[in-house]
Amino acid sequence: MPSFNPFTPVSGRYTLFEIRLENDFIVFRGNEHEAAGQLLKGTVVLCLSAPLRLENIHLKLTGTVHYTWTDAKVTATGISTHKVDKALQILEHRWPPFVGIGAPDPAGDGSRQQTKGTTLPPGNYEWPFELLLGGDTTESVEGMREASIMYKLKATIARGKLLHDIHAYKQLRVIRTLDASALEFLHAMSIENIWPNKIEYSIVVPQKAIVFGSSIPVEMRFTPLLKGLELGDITIKLLEVHDIILTSQTGHSIREHKKEREIDMWTLSVSREEHWRDIIDGDNGPEGWVVDTSLDLPKKLSQCLQDVNTQGIKIRHKLKIVVALNNPDGHVSELRATLPVTIFISPNMPLDEEGNLVRLLPNGASREAATMAPPSYNDHRLDQLYEDIDLINLHSPIGGRSGVSSPLLGHSRAGSTDNLPALVQGASVHPDLLAHRLHSMSLEERHRNASWNSNLSAAGTLPRTGTSNAAHAGDETRISPPPSAPLTRQNSGDGPSGSSTPPEHVDFPQISELSRVPSYQTAVKTPVRPLATDMFDLPDYETALT
């Protein structure tokens, strides 16, 4: 039996002690009055290489609001400063101990608790935990020095008197995103006005709600009313307004801090050759300048925050637009306008522990798909699948090698004669015909894999120069499909599908660089990229059959 001395160092007795969450962030859709509760689930993991004597192992969740800033006031004797530094706890939850004192007695019926410490033998241990967070839970605010709202999980191995406890920490981010039916997705922010005898203008932001880390589209139209008037540079600033109020226990305001910071600035040069249109709107509209642009937002919470109004912390954003007007007599006028926008964090673009985006929007993704909050899984988990299709023909090819066909062999079938626009417009396809085509694609994939394997065995190595195979990667990024024939397949074969477009060379060393496995530290700090259905439990078997 191995000996155990409780006063020996403990650093070599455990190799891992950490908190693992199913999702590093909890998402609430809608405000605190309409959002549903969300389940926090995770596991406390402990790996021991030697026996460990302990009193218990417990877990605690805390949410804290921290206010800190310095007020400067001008007095008769000079400038006096007053520092505000206050922390309030808005959430605290303690789980019952997993083992040791206070934990359920394994020898009893579950109602009795252990009253003594225990010694854990070497091995791997996991203790799951969960907590239902109410829909009114305050969202996280990070990246601002004057105020912050943070949630932290703390697991502790209590070792008793004269011994150091062991702790593990995990940050939890609470996100409150807009509901898919929020008015901010439907309302456009616009300014339309006339400067008499000078210019008629229209400035529009098509959608008030903007996803954090994405871009703000701006559409501007200008019609001159003065002969010889020219447009100069257009300057756009994104301003972030902070309004922090610290209240007493009775609800009276005792401190207030206001601040406005410039997030970013863009300067657009306007010329007649590039932006002048004979008709700027409709078929019979007036002539003038058309300026459309997209303003890229920062991708770090330290540089730009989301809109917030909670716990006395109010953050708002607005676009300040200044248009220079060059008059015929030589003097310069300025047209100024301000448009409010709402920046929110989308679960589709999660953040890491430092508040940086870890997944960006794919190239070519539509603006609507990028800005909409994901739908609730409960609204779609009972959706009926498409019927009358032989499911056997939908299975993936047996023995297929996914690494072979991507990205060297493009999945895009730009050269085929499938009438994809006709399918999008709603042309009906018979189920038998659809199943036959899927089966044919499966056979073609097997044939390509077999040809590829035979080429590898014959050549031994892969050519490192851009060939016709490299063109397929470029086919997938084209914005519009090429003209296609009617809804038939005419000798599409297995040849290169990108022959109708110039080849786009791919640097194979870059592909090998992208396929490198990250280090363990990088992997564990990267949030899990869940599907929309991962936040909810799947229906049971009986429900699925109904």
TrEMBL record:
A single BP term in Gene Ontology: ubiquitin-dependent endocytosis
Molecular function as annotated in GO: protein-macromolecule adaptor activity; ubiquitin protein ligase binding
Protein origin, superkingdom: Eukaryota
SMART domains xrefs: Arrestin_C
Pfam families noted in UniProt: Arrestin_C (PF02752), Arrestin_N (PF00339)
SUPFAM superfamilies: E set domains
Region Disordered, residue ranges: 454-528
Gene Ontology CC: cytosol; plasma membrane
Positions of the Arrestin C-terminal-like domain: 195-348
Start-end of Low complexity biased regions: 492-503
Segments of skewed composition (Polar residues): 454-470
Similarity-based family: Belongs to the arrestin family.
Assembly: Interacts with hulA.
Name this polypeptide is given: B2534ac8-1a7b-4ce0-8310-2f9d7f667695
The organism's taxonomic lineage, starting at the top: Eukaryota, Fungi, Dikarya, Ascomycota, Pezizomycotina
